[in-house]
Specification:
This protein is an alpha+beta fold. It has a three-stranded antiparallel beta sheet with strand order 1-3-2. The radius of gyration is 14 Å and the shape is elongated.
Length: 71
Amino acid sequence: SKFLSLSEEQAFEDGLSEISLLVTDINENAIQFYKKSGFGVIAQEPLIRCGADTEATQWLLMLKALSPGSR
């Protein structure tokens, strides 16, 4: 997506070598999109609902290394 590309460009220009995001385990479309965009799951943590109405059980931390050709 254009937003993701712009975010990656800005992070790279700011001198960052990686970019990360959180997604819930039930958001399969987002997980697949981010994997196709070069992100990988590096950690999982239980989702504490705090009254939220969701079937999600885990937060997934996804990471992508940035380089001039990765965007």
